[in-house]
């Protein structure tokens, strides 16, 4: 049982928001060996390491098929292209995500339509229903912060309106919804393996999962220029391959996946227990097992709060301070401030605390103490 948190000041610690070097240090010898093996093999694109990695990813996601690609944005683009979604079509997604979620819709020539979110930061199914028009072809449900969206309701809406339901699971690898893994909950799911994700490689990469063999085979061609074989393209595609070296790094990391995921969840549990009466903490749903890519709290006086934490050595970030519909890039869509009040209100209060497996118990305790001290100082709830 964890010791109770003291409100008294303690010796200052430094808690960076991310510490990628710590994970590398843990696996350095193994990863250096991987580099040598791939270098000596002479096979740098595709090959056995990629196929092995894709099989491991499919198992994690309880999906029949997994396809590695160059990055998480390409994953969404390929998913949309596989279903023929493009110019003249509309795709609904959330306005509180990273720019890539909506940007992929724009990249295929479709029109972005936003729907507001709920208190869980994920799409509100009722708002999605309101946003559907005769041009709507798909819904992209973002499992923001690693917390699964309300997929039963969204699947019902998609079925009723004959829409494709795409999971943007970039932040949610390993998460569960009603006993099923994220990546197996819609028509297709899209993941990022960027270095800032819970499970990551050493550069950009991503993957797509689906249960549909026809869709899988089409995406497999799309990621490789539309080639049917070495010399003949069946349609125009793109170059979105995960290199053999990145896949081999992934294979070396896969045995640690469960341990790292459980550590994210354990830290989040400690944060929640220590802070739920002090600040607004993430909702914990009985239906889901979130993986807490970010541990997002809500406070008033946010700038002062973050600065006071930084003075105590605790680095924090905001995910994300400007809603997508209010960005300059979205001006042509015609949205205005006030269109999505839940998203906008949250964007003014949210901040993310450090959370990654390499955080020590002492660092976690120190973050909790620091948040309590700052909250009491600023009366920030």
Structural features, described:
By secondary structure, this protein is an alpha/beta fold. The chain has helices at 20-41, 48-60, 72-82, 99-107, 125-131, 151-160, 213-222, 244-253, 257-275, 302-311, 341-347, 361-378, and strands at residues 65-69, 90-93, 111-114, 136-142, 164-168, 176-177, 180-181, 188-192, 206-210, 288-289, 295-298, 350-353. It starts with 19 loop residues before the first helix and ends with a helix. Residues 1-7 have low confidence and may be disordered.
The average pLDDT score comes to: 96
Q: In which range does the helix fraction lie?
A: 25-40%
Q: What is the CA-CA span between the terminal residues?
A: 27 Å
Number of strands: 12
What percent strand? 5-15%
Biggest sheet layout? 7 strands, mixed
Please list the strands of the largest sheet in the order they lie side by side: 1-9-8-5-4-2-3
Question: How many separate helices?
Answer: 12
Unreliable spans: 1-7
* Spatial shape: globular
The Rg value, from CA coordinates, equals: 21 Å
Which series of helices and strands comes N to C? HHEHEHEHEHEEEEEHHHEEHHEH
